[in-house]
Amino acid sequence: MMLTALIIIPVLCGLLGWAFGRGTSSFSRWITLLGNVINLVIVALLWAGVGLSGAAGSAWLSEVNVPWIPGLGISFTLGLDGLSLTMLALTAFLGIASVLASWTGIRDRVRFFHFNLSLVLAGVNGVFLALDLFLFAFFWELMLVPMYFLIDIWGHENRHRAAMKFFLFTQIGGLLMLVAIIVLAVIHGMATGSLSFDYRDLIGTQLSPVMGMLLMLGFFVAFAVKLPVFPLHTWLPDAHTEAPTAGSVVLAGLLLKTGGYGFIRFVIPLFPAVSRAFAPVALGLAVAGIIYGGFMAFGQKDMKRLVAYTSVSHLGFVLLGVYAFNSLALTGAVLQMVSHGISTGALFILVGALQDRIHTRDLDRMGGLWKQAPRMGTAAMVLAMALVGLPGLLNFVSEFLVLLGAWQVNMLLSILAGLGLVVATIYALRMIQLSFHGSPRETWKVPDLSARETAVLFVMIAALVVLGMFPQPLLRTVESVVAGVLAAAGGGA
Amino acid sequence: MSARDIVVLLPLIIVAAVSIGVLFIRRNAPAAVVTLIGFLAALAATFAAWPLAPRQIGGLLVFDRFVFFGISLVLAASVFVTASSWAYLRGHADGRGEYYFLLLLASLGSAVLAAAAHFATFFLGLELLSVSLYTLIAWRRERGAGAEAGIKYLVLAGATSAFLLFGMALLYAVSGSMDIGRIAAGAAGGTSPAEAIMAAVGLGMILVGLGFKLAVVPFHLWAPDVYDGAPAPVAGYIATVSKGAVAVLLVRLFIPAGAESFIAPSGASTAFPWTFTIIAGASMFVGNLLALREDNVKRILAYSSISHLGYLLVAFMAGGTQAVQAVSFYLVTYFATTLVAFAVVAALSTPDHEADHIEHYNGLAARSPWLTGVFTASLLSLAGLPLTAGFVGKFIIMKAGAGAQLWALIIILAVNGTISIFYYLRIVSAMFRGKAAAAPASTRQPVAVALVLAVLTLIVVTLGVYPQPMLSFISLFAPVGQ
Predict the structure, then answer these.
(1) Chain B environment of A163 (Cβ under 8 Å)
(2) Residues B342-386: pLDDT tens digits?
(3) Is B406 in CB contact (< 8 Å) with chain A?
(4) Residue A308: domain span
(5) What is the structure's pLDDT at B181?
(6) Shortest CA distance from B363: residue in chain A
(7) How far is A462 from chain B (nearest CA, A)?
(8) Which residue among A148, A330, A413, B472 is buried most deeply as judged by most CB within 10 Å?
(9) Residues in chain A closer than 8 A to B468 (CB atoms)
(10) Number of domain units in chain A
(11) For residues A283 and B305, what is the distance between their CA atoms, to the nearest angstrom?
């Protein structure tokens, strides 16, 4: 029941805010915030309920199972394990952050904005919980439309183009995945005589190598577009740059994570053998993304676009960790999703706050802002260090684990990925130099962060530091999931 | 003819009787109300006759569950089109009785077409439908586009009717039968190679006639012009009722009882699957690609419906029971969704000013949030996104296609699903763009239109969220047999 509530509460809050928020703009903000807080409490309760260990042994800590479309073997099945729990916590956390981040920035159609934001979060929660593949595809596509609206209505200059590009890229992936899901279920249905879309039924379906590879690619493309994996990333810089702050936070912090989640939850367990066969390609793409994203970030003048390209680079580590097939790297990949979600989310909030003040994202027109806005500068500095992967922050833990795991598989790739971190140092420092250091190039009047913005950024940075110092609870939560996925994939250290 | 036969025929009788009655009414509102009551009564009669299926009447008409389903679909869609037409024709000076008379006749023709068991009723139904549409399409004859559309449809429909008749003659020459059930079961197989070729050519010519009505590629050229020139409610009628009735007949002609895979009812069984595959694939691509650069909303909807019929053919190609069921489900989703779209266009239009350009929709969200919401739901359903009927419909087509291993077609379907997003979202984006531009002041809708939109949108959303009741209902259908 609590799992269903996680999806229903945001929808309900969005509707309530829309229905009763007429006239005052703050009602829908408050109720959306309230919904996210309730969700965070629910996640905390779930976490406390299962204990921090999550070591129950059985795969699913909690689940809901209601027949939905029995005629097609589809049921409303939600399940929770350590991985879902981690992702749900991240969703609720970033949900709160994104509402607060757009508290003053959004003035137009406030109710509709929060309705869409709530709907995206509901869809993301659904993706992290669905155990029925039809339901998964349902939520997967459900989060697209409100996200499209967020970019298309409240975005910046080139928003229409960016929103369309985002939608088309994600849709082609989503539809290929839908085809793969249906074919998988039909093959399973022919073999067993009963049609089912349940994840646990479909695991272990016997497939010919060719069919297995094709179906795996159907899933892979969908998740690779979202993550994004190197050649399929081109929608990302546009969408992130043009989206409003909350949109960027949700996009970078959560929607990209649905891709990584999909790899771990679906691609590896459903197609273990072909995934192993495909691993060299995936690892190559991962390293290519890490380095390419880093160099592109270095070349950007638009600060938001710079941050967007760092996502391409950092999420390459997730792919690297997943396809290394060992527990160090896979754990690192999960942690990387969390650390990237928080740190990039915070960076987008910061860039958004800066843009609200000086109405440009052009790094060449900034400079010397530290004097006027020291708190903003400090936050930017810490977050830049997170991009670099400085010890003491969660980013360090996750990237270190991934590199360590990858080293055992392929030293060359690990070294190349490590080079990506060197590039990260260059672009992160360049970003700080051009914006906050040096002498002012134009006379900006920049008020420092407000109390609300300071609080949001402080909590996010604190989370990075605390989890970076004490990653143990997080490690133990995902421990059993990592072991389970690797066991499904057939061994591995 | 027994009492039971009369009951089964009652829906057709009611529609025919009301059509005569409505000719004597000279004002818009009463004529619309009488027509509405007529359609609703016929719909009720269809449900009353439901338990009597299957029943054959004089070798001319056959009524089984699938046919009754087709007839209810035709009648229900007619109800919505009538209500929409009433609002559209308000304040327009033309004689109204005739409009509704023609609408009733067209629906009668569609119902006969769906139930046809014999070439005679097949042709009769088709011509009744076509002839009524000639006039309805050209209703706004003071506009050049209206008259042009009417003429275009007249000429092309006439030409394809000739094909159809010649095809029927060839099949009769080979098989000695004009019975659709027997033709479908392979009576026209022929014994010699020459006869097989004649049968194949005959069937191909019938396909030309049906393909024209369905507006599938390469018989689609009339669609954009006719949709554009016709009054918006009539365009909605052409997109749904006329195509739906033909689709029902197509299924009955090509998917015989007892067959669990796709077979053509003649010796030329290898050629026909290929023909349909090419028609389906080409319809999807041509419809969607031509819509990309179009700025006229009615033409966009015309291209969109070309591609949707392509999707429908994928379900049809799956063959056997699953094809009948998938086609039925998709027809329901397509009907509801398309009717919403055209009802919105009609609601924003008057006979003097058609709301057809995409710029007309700029800022609609600010002027009329409800119409925007309804139109958005419809467009998202056409695009096949979740929470709407379109998503489930697309899913069921893909499942049928996967079951029959039509790999190429379902991949084409997925690619086209993505292409189509572009132009549907363009309209959605326009509605939310900017402030109200130069647009008609009032967007308040009469109760009838609001009701039509509300009911249809409810159907679209319900089918998207909880399709099980409809699936259970449709699982009663099987390929036609006597």
Answers:
(1) 425, 429
(2) 999 988 887 677 888 888 888 888 888 889 999 999 999 999 998
(3) no
(4) 271-493
(5) 82
(6) A153
(7) 38
(8) A330
(9) 68-71
(10) 1
(11) 43
Would you call A172 and B418 a contact, using CB atoms and an 8 Å cutoff? yes
Taking each helix axis from N to C end, the angle separating B369-382 and B447-465, rounded to the nearest 10 degrees, works out to: 40
Answer whether residue A406 is part of any domain: yes
- CB of B432 within 8 Å of a chain A CB? The answer is yes
Which distant-in-sequence residues (6+ apart) come within 8 Å of B66 by Cβ? B248, B251, B252, B324, B328, B477, B478, B480
Closest CA to B481 of B328, B259, B273: B259
Res B267 pLDDT > 50 = no
CB-closest option in B421, B468, B471 to A167: B421
Assess B425–A contact: CB distance below 8 Å, yes or no.
yes
CB contact under 8 A, A72 and B425: no
B402 in contact with chain A, both atoms CB, cutoff 8 A: yes
Interface size A-B, in CB pairs within 8 Å, comes to: 74
B190: pLDDT strictly greater than 90: no
SS3 content of chain B, % helix, strand, coil (to 5): 75, 0, 25
Q: Which two tokens stand for residue B298?
A: 């009615």
Say yes or no to pLDDT of A493 above 50: no
Nearest chain B Cα to A139, which residue?
A: B386
User: pLDDT digit string (tens) for A357-410?
Assistant: 888 888 888 888 888 888 888 999 999 999 888 888 999 999 999 999 999 988
